[in-house]
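Sequence design from tokenized structure. All designs in this work follow the same two-part layout: the structure record, then the generated sequence. An example of the structure record is given first.
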């Protein structure tokens, strides 16, 4: 009966763990779930083996022999599943729930089905001498062999993670593997000594007391959550201090040069020069704000890749024109080299592709004093997919080896003692990398400090036949003038009204302004307008409320009304369209966007 005593102690041990584990509040991680399965299956196994033993001892007939046979087979299946669960458990705590983990789970569980089938077909002998049960034959040998293979895989995983071997999670696991090897050895030498189910129960107990105790896990989880919160907080603080610096730099220029304009307004040449500085600093500021919006949109998962058909040559021409304009008078040779085999029409997100290239080209222009910049586009075509390989090489300042890893970090501005006079936010490459990833592409950097850098991206685009509607493009290029068309601008901020009037001036429209929702409504009642540009965030009546009132009170209110607002965060456009606005334009007003609006509503 020593077998039964072993089992009884294993049974109480298992039942205790099951009760403690399942009655406590647990963190719901995958590893804990696996552990739950492990202890349940172990308890069921012990009960089965105890039933087998009792039958052998008290009532061993031809009929009950068959039952013992079946129970033993189930028992063996349990070993296969338990070792597999242990393998998954150890893999998960070693490498986390990656795709490889999912693959391993699928493969091993499918293999288990095969093993179980084989195990059922193989012969099994039951030894029963005076109630001392044991099993021999091909079935148990096969199962021990499978368990041994799993064990070897487990040991290999642990060796691969040798650095973790002395961590809290690995110590008990190492002990229990040793335990298992001893138990398997004892079992092989003496098949009538049934110790494996109890050993498994003790292993479960060791795991419970060390790494799977729900209370301990809960504390661990809380600590991790606190660490995450601390890190997020630190990132926020860093972000704010960075922002404060980055925003103040262009603002300093704007305020300084504007003051100088006021103080000394006689020298025309100086006025033009100061105004140019102001425009440049403003553009930097706008670029910074757009960058922040872009990166926060990407990080919030709010940027989508919108695929349409486009003509690659148009994109490239555009990029060349833009780069040449940015190069200005710099003594840099701008070389281009485009593969002849580039397909004419591609299907993908042309505007994001352009944004990626602009970022790389702008950087090469910024960080190169003289020499050359080479913009190269080649392609590898397979079936209907064209892999675009785009590189931007320069003979600029280059990047130190140790800085390459920091390139794609947010606000990662490098080599500041050299770059201090070059404007930048450190966001361009972070955005570029994120966009390339979103388009399932790759980006690599080669650089030699003091010699130059080369950024290469590869992105797959579909090849299409070309059904582009050329008329869409024509409309945008047209020079617009709309004499006699009447526009009402409603904005509480006088400065904004002035700016809007100024940017609308070249279009020869007739402008009326109102500085509140109520004033706007009054003007609309008394006069017909062709277009209303309506600010939203106004004290008293907001733009949205104003529009609502207009639509409720004037049954035939059909004047196109466009939200003109600095509220440019994620999802705002959708919000304004849902509120009944016909369109949306963000402040500061971009000329192209304004043209699009005027063209759409005043033609
Ligand atoms: P920034 O707005 O500062 O240019 P980016 O994210 O575009 O921000 O670039 C991050 C940093 O990488 C830059 O500050 C610069 O130090 C370095 N860098 C980027 N492109 C180049 C290049 N072509 N040559 C040398 N350094 C570069």
């Amino acid at each position: 009966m020593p077998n039964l005593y072993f089992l009884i102690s294993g049974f109480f041990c298992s039942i205790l763990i099951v009760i403690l584990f399942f009655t406590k509040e647990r963190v719901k991680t995958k590893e804990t779930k696996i552990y739950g399965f492990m202890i349940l299956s172990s308890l069921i196994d012990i009960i089965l083996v105890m039933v087998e033993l009792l039958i052998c001892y008290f009532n061993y007939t031809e009929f009950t022999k068959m039952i013992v046979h079946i129970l033993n087979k189930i028992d063996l299946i349990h070993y296969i599943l338990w070792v597999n669960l242990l393998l998954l458990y150890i893999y998960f705590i070693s490498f986390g729930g990656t795709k490889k983990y999912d693959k391993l789970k699928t493969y091993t569980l499918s293999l288990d089905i095969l093993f179980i089938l084989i195990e059922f077909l193989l012969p099994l002998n039951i030894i029963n001498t005076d109630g001392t049960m044991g099993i021999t034959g091909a079935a148990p040998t096969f199962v021990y062999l499978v368990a041994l293979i799993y064990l070897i895989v487990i040991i290999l995983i642990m060796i691969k993670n040798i650095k973790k071997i002395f961590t809290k999670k690995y110590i008990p696991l190492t002990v229990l593997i040793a335990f298992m090897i001893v138990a398997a050895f004892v079992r092989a030498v003496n098949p009538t000594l049934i110790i494996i189910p109890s050993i498994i129960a003790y292993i479960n107990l060791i795991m419970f007391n060390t790494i799977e105790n729900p209370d301990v896990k809960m504390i661990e989880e809380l600590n991790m959550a606190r660490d995450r919160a601390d890190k997020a907080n630190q990132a926020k603080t860093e972000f704010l201090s960075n922002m404060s610096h980055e925003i103040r730099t262009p603002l300093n220029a704007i305020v300084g040069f504007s003051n100088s304009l006021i103080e000394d307004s006689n020298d025309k040449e100086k006025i033009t020069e100061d105004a140019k500085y102001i425009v440049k600093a403003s553009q930097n500021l706008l670029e910074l704000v757009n960058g922040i919006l872009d990166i926060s949109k990407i990080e919030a998962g709010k940027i989508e890749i919108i695929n349409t058909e486009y003509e690659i040559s148009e994109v490239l021409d555009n990029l060349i024109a833009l780069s040449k304009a940015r190069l200005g008078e710099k003594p840099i040779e701008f070389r281009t080299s485009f593969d002849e085999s580039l397909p004419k029409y591609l299907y993908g997100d042309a505007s994001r592709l352009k944004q990626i290239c602009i970022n790389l080209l702008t950087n090469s222009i910024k960080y190169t004093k003289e020499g050359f910049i080479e913009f190269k586009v080649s392609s590898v075509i397979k079936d209907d997919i064209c892999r675009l390989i785009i590189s931007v090489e320069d003979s600029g300042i280059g990047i130190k080896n140790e800085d390459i890893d920091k390139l794609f970090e947010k606000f990662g501005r490098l080599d500041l003692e050299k770059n201090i006079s070059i404007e930048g936010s450190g966001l361009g490459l972070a955005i570029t990398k994120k966009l390339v990833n979103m388009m399932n592409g790759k980006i690599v950097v080669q650089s030699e400090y003091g010699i130059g850098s080369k950024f290469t991206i590869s992105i797959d685009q579909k090849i299409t036949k070309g059904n582009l509607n050329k008329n869409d493009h024509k409309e945008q290029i047209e020079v617009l003038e709309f004499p006699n068309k009447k526009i009402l601008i409603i904005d509480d901020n006088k400065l904004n009204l002035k700016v809007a009037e100024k940017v609308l001036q070249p279009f020869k429209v007739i402008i009326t302004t109102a500085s509140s929702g109520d004033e706007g409504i009054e003007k609309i009642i008394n006069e017909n307008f062709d277009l209303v540009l309506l600010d939203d965030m106004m004290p008293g009546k907001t733009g949205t409320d104003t529009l609502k009132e207009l639509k409720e009170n004037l049954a035939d209110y059909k004047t196109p009304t466009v939200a003109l607002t600095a509220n440019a965060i994620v999802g705002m456009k959708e919000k304004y369209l849902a509120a009944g606005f016909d369109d949306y334009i963000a402040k500061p007003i971009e000329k192209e966007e304004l043209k699009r609006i005027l063209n759409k509503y005043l033609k």
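The pocket of adenosine-5'-diphosphate is lined by residues 363-364, 366-367, 394, 396-399, 407, 412-415, 419, 424-430, 453 (CB under 6 Å). We note this feature because it recurs in several other targets discussed in the main text.
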